[in-house]
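Spend some time on the protein that follows and explain the fold to me:
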Amino acid sequence: MKITGERVVTPTGGFNPTWQRHAAAYEACAPRLGPGRVLDLGCGVGHSYHRLAPRETVGVDVEPEALAGQDRPTVVADMRELPFEDESFSSIVSVHSLEHVPDPERTIAEAARILDPEGIAAFVTPNRLTLGLPHEIIDPYHFIEFDAGELRGLCELSFGEVEVLGLFGSDRYMELFDEERATLTKLLRRDPLGLRRLVPRRGRQLLYDGLLRRYRPGVDPRAEAIGVEDFELRPEGLEEALDLVAFCRDPRGSRAGGPGIRAPADCVWCGAPLDRKADRLNGRTRCPGCGAATTDPWPTPDQLDSAYGSWYWPDSGRRFLFGGDALLRRSRASLAGRLHEVAPLGPVLDVGAGEGVLIDALRQRGRIVHGLEREAQHPQMSDDPLDTIEGEWAAVVFWHSLEHLPAPGDAIREAARLLGPGGVLVIAVPNTDSIQARVFGDRWLHLDLPRHLVHLSERALLDRLREAGFAIERVSRVRGGQIVIGWLDGLVGALPGGLAPYQALRRSDARSERIGTGRRLAALAASVLLLPLALGCSAVEIALGRSGTVYVEARLG
């Protein structure tokens, strides 16, 4: 196979230290495995399975070419959807494979499903604190990387007992490792603005492969001398470990009564099954039928309660600095004026009413308004489910709330039920087909996982409305707002240092995480500098009809 950064295929050409590191991982796992059949998950070319002998091993990889020629049973499969019966393996080993899928929790859940209740699973993955940069994934073949706590938390979703150890290198290995890190640092200095993050993943992979082959010396006696004896497994000092090894017991999927992974079976937008044809992305699965994506894994009620912490709607009623709250009030007043103009006489239902700013603006125009919101505090709001609401309404509004609902497709049908003659449905949502969504990918601000449970393109939204009997009267790529901040957050977030301008623009009691003064000022300064670029990018995507959000007005036909 061709040498790339995706998998270890040869010990030659300067790659022996990496080869031996992988082999050492198998050697370290072997004494802890039971005597029965072992699944070698994401096994690649299978260079070290003989270290698990005399156990029978079965190799699984998504690439047929990688499995060719292995002298053991092999299966071509996605490790997130394994073709094996429940409780069919005594042990499972996964060496440097979890990081290659965008949703490793599905791999962990599948491992728990097929593991014998008394068995053990071992997951080996690079330590993000020592691999590249702690705040950035450098390897473009990796979708996600972990520190020890993150790996433990992932495994505990599907296993009752998790022990995390570290794989450490000898002094002579670390000499080579440190030289590679120094080379990496020099290369990254050539891109101080972090513009590499804007390059499509496939482009970064090709560049990475070329640099890897160029900067690893073909002949280096020091590299050739490295063997499995240069590595050892230790329980302490995990922040300095090369690799992390999670030994997992007590698989607790649904059969064991544990929480497990809540993988959605159907698309929450159209109801179609999310089968093997679905596109598995990081934190969401895209329906091959309607094109909408469903958050995956599906958050538990406790996870959602945590995601909507007290910071989300602080008691002060003030969320943003620099006049941001006043700007929001003006935008809601503008929306109220538009609603008052296009809706017939009658009450308005505001679904996901937030702090009630739109409610207040509509009431000032003489409208009767009722809002729905989690833990509602406003006197004109309640936390009743949408399907319990009755009466005829002149307008139903989903202002950046449809994506928060657990059954958004059903919500469209409910809106059709509730609208009176001539009533208008108003929706504003992020647009996954926008240019900013494509540029920033998994870092796009408006993914907002796990609070956003559905992720819609403009086409998916309009198609669903038409299927529900609505006639589209207006589509705006401007009125939905939140376009510039989408660009600004993505552009600043591409800079070194893990800057988060959206959080920096929020008041201290309205932030999801604590931000030091230095980082906050750096994020704000970078925002000022990049604001003209964000404005220009916003203008371009609006002109091209692919803006970050979409606003729709529709009536029953």
User: Anything to note?
Assistant: Residues 253-260 have pLDDT under 50 and may be disordered. The CA atoms of residues 102 and 143 lie 5 Å apart. The domain at 16-252 is CATH 3.40.50.150 (Rossmann fold).
